[in-house]
Amino acid sequence: MKNQKSKDGGGGRTLVTRRRVLAGVAATVGGMAGLGLVSSLKEGRPGLDPIGIPAGLPEPPTDSMTYRKNPNSGDSVSLLGFGCMRYPVMPGETSPRSPRIDEKSAFALVDYAIAHGVNYFDTAWGYHGGASEILTGRALRRHPRETFYLATKMPSYQNPTLDEAKKIFFTQLKKCQVEYFDYYLLHTLSTVDNYQAVYEKEKVLDFLLEQKQKGRIRNLGWSFHGDKPMLEYVLSRDVPWDFAMIQINYHDLLYQYIQPPYRKLPSPAPSKWMFEKMVASGLPLVVMEPLLGGRLARLNKKSLSILQAEHPIATAASWAFRFVAGLPNIMTVLSGMTYMEHLQDNLRTYAPFSPLSDHETQVLRKALDAFVVADNIRCTTCGYCMPCPYGVDIPMVFRHHNDCLDDDLVPRNVQSADYKELRRNYRLRLASRVPELRTASHCIGCGQCVKLCPQFIDIPHEMAKLASILEEQGLTV
Ligand code: SF4
Ligand code: SF4
User: From the CA of 461, which ligand is nearest?
Assistant: First the structure.
């Protein structure tokens, strides 16, 4: 409803009329994907498209992958781990989480990764609506079992009973077409209550430890998305954990950032506090979200120019990966790779790997400072919020605005001499990228997209701001 407020000042009547019309045609617009009106990202697919990766670089080498030893099992694990939550989906799909995975493209990625030394594959019960485990199993069974490590997870967030957990576990073995999992995780430990209910009272942990004894699990660990008491509790249990999976990236670690949903908790676990606890635990660490959901691959121009002055062709993502992989106890760093360009760029970073020097870390800090003060919308164009039932092309609208910010093309001050010129350029650029029917003006503030955004962007609020720029330009009715 923020949208209505901001628009009512200059054109309330028009807005009400537009909303009535839009509400009336919502069902039709909801079918836009069927008409080919999906977000205009690469190949018409949703997901992080590979912008900023230079073309024409040589192929990464096949014999230079960096490996880390797991001290508990002796496994030699590739420093680049393949995150199986962002497989390419079929053209025309509107969500990158769709179960309709493009099998041919996904197989090509898995095969290329293995040929270049990647051996750790991380899937989960819930990824791609359950289709990731099936696809990962189908892709990996074409390779000798001893050439890869397969990880999957028990969905703690579903609060499974013991019987349900058993059913899930044995179904996972079937879906993945394996006799055993190399790495098995208690997925998304969030609160002590949830942990106690599932793993202690229901005795799901006893069941998993039994599976480990029987050889169906080689390494047992957990992934953490919780508060301070949760981390302290799980580390204090008398359980022989073999590894853990945590979220680390340079933004959260250096900037002491706490993700919005965790800020509301009575005892949120800041990244630095959590990481120090994990290092003290001595557990080998699997890193998730090294790019903060892709945001660190999408720096603004100023931050990028700071990095490029140091290394002209290194991508923003490669800086982020080098930072986390250089931290202590890191066994592997996961990356969800949708395009071959993502995979090749990552392979160049890890084959072979060199950690950031002190000087490079300072450069990164400078780039981060320029990034966190910028007022761009922190959208990664991941497409998770799509489709908007009213047809708004959320990722492209935000990208257009951020690009204009980068180029100082956002009209801000009506009094300034270049205001008219800026307005004109802003409008022309938008028209060349987003059809008028899909611009911010068509957001009615329903809020459906908000819960889907991993970056916690207040999408209706941002749309209202951008719509007000357009309205001033006379683009709306
Ligand atoms: S709030 Fe989100 S889903 Fe709703 S109309 Fe606006 S952009 Fe579309
Ligand atoms: S608004 Fe959020 S969910 Fe939508 S594309 Fe941007 S980051 Fe992804």
Answer: 1
